[in-house]
Design a protein that fits this description.
Two copies of one chain form a homodimer. By secondary structure, the first copy, chain A, is an all-alpha fold. The first copy, chain A, contains nine helices and no strands. The first copy, chain A, binds a DNA duplex through helix 1 and helix 3.
DNA sequence: CAGAAACTGGTACGGCCGTACCAATCGAGG
DNA sequence: CCTCGATTGGTACGGCCGTACCAGTTTCTG
């Protein structure tokens, strides 16, 4: 067994690469299909490895899921970090800032309702898979820090990021029920409205 | 077959009672376990009927799920309607109003994180089960109307109910990730804060 | 009192699931 | 080279799932 002590860390370069491929495929699945669609067999098929490889490198599906969510967060936060770092330091209109807030919290590429659906299923999954909670919490904090930095650069320092994120999340979830594909648009409007009412206060 | 034309309406009193029992059990399951935990077998066991009864009265699991979500909404909105109707018509402090908002939107009895988890899984389920969307939309609208009425009675007429609900939903979802059982408390604080900033504007 | 329709309940099929098992293969250290 | 641990991949088990089937029973109707 490669797994000394119970975990499953690869001991060879090839093994590491394979584990890598599995995690990457799982992260892709989590991001597109949600955690419920992320099964051993689905991951194995997506990664192009036999079923047994997924149980060889991860003690359980929960372990695999944790690695996948961790990876999905990294995959998404990398570009966002660059995006924030590239933000010019100048006062920006509420409407434009709203777009930036969406890019930071949701990622710039999550445009379709289906993508947003998977995004929020991931959060809710914390309830059924407690092992996911630490990484979800951590991700939340990283996003919050990024958002604070972004708002600071746009001349909105001191904004209540928790409230901003809450309005965004809540609006998306309501919009997903409508099912008209306008979730992101609605969320942007809601964030812009909140930003404007804040700056007028 | 009882189902003339394809649907499955009972033709006898006993049949109606049985269908009733199934819907009631399914609604209970949806409210406590979430839609994913609501299977034919789980419902049959909870209702104390054989498995086949669930497929006899409902063409598919989706049909059963729709009936269950509809029923769950009715079960919850009834008490809330009475609660709102009993609200005295007088200006009320933001903090107290926040508690009322939570009672209306979440229901007065959904106190534990697990209950809230199931509540939001129900909304997200609309994405995977499009048949649920109409009833979810309808429920959303009923809650919004109730909330408008409640706020009016408390001297907060004209409040942005959509924004209020969004902050509430978003806060609960973030809090569920924390997993410390304080979701409802946090949401109440967030709603109170928003109400206060609104009235000061 | 038939006969038909509604209902009952046990059973089964095919599918996907997580996980376990194990013989075969590979690759580096002796 | 040879050995041994790492890795591979095919297979299987038991479980839950949605759904279908059907012989038997009840209940309504003419």
């Amino acid at each position: 067994m490669a797994a000394t002590g119970g975990a499953s860390r690869p001991a060879t370069a090839k093994g590491a690469a394979r584990r890598e491929a599995i995690v990457a495929a799982a992260a892709r699945l989590v991001a597109t299909e949600g955690p419920d669609g992320t099964s051993h067999r689905a991951v194995a098929a997506a990664a192009g490895v036999p079923l047994a490889a997924t149980t060889y490198y991860f003690r359980s599906l929960d372990d695999l899921l944790v690695a996948a969510v961790e990876r999905a967060a990294d995959d998404e936060l990398g570009p966002v970090t660059e995006l924030v770092a590239a933000l010019p330091r100048r006062r920006t209109s509420a409407d434009r800032v709203a777009g930036i807030v969406l890019d930071v919290v949701l990622g710039p590429d999550r445009l379709e309702d289906a993508d947003l659906q998977a995004h929020y299923e991931r959060f809710l999954a914390g309830g059924r898979h407690p092992a996911l909670r630490p990484v979800l919490r951590q991700t939340r904090r990283r996003v919050d820090a990024l958002l604070t930095e972004a708002l600071d650069r746009c001349g909105h320092a001191g904004a209540d990021t928790a409230q901003l994120v809450a309005v965004l999340d809540g609006t998306v979830i309501s919009a997903l029920v409508e099912g008209d594909g306008r979730a992101r648009v609605r969320a942007r409007a809601a964030v812009a409205a909140l930003l404007e009412s804040d700056s007028s206060a």
